[in-house]
Design brief:
This protein is mainly alpha-helical. It has one domain. It is 87% helix and 0% strand. The protein has three helices and no strands. It has helices at residues 2-26, 31-43, 47-66. It is elongated and about 65 Å long.
Length: 67
């Protein structure tokens, strides 16, 4: 009986993990996002610094497109 529950839990976990990766794969990255990531990589940024840099970079790119 415990083996059956273990197998059922493993199957359920497989579906949950599969669904999560499918959702993540659906999001397409914009050219601005890719370019800002490349710039962050070049600067060696990680964590909060990288996140704030990318946010500012993308905002600046959107502003320059509107001009």
């Amino acid at each position: 009986m415990n083996t059956t529950r273990l197998i059922a839990a493993a199957v359920a976990a497989t579906f949950v993990i599969g669904a999560g990766s499918a959702i993540a794969a659906e999001k397409a990255r914009t050219p601005e996002s890719i370019e800002c990531s490349k710039q962050a990589d070049a600067k060696g940024l990680h964590g909060k610094e990288r996140k704030s840099f990318r946010a500012k970079c993308k905002a600046d790119m959107k502003k320059s497109e509107k001009k």
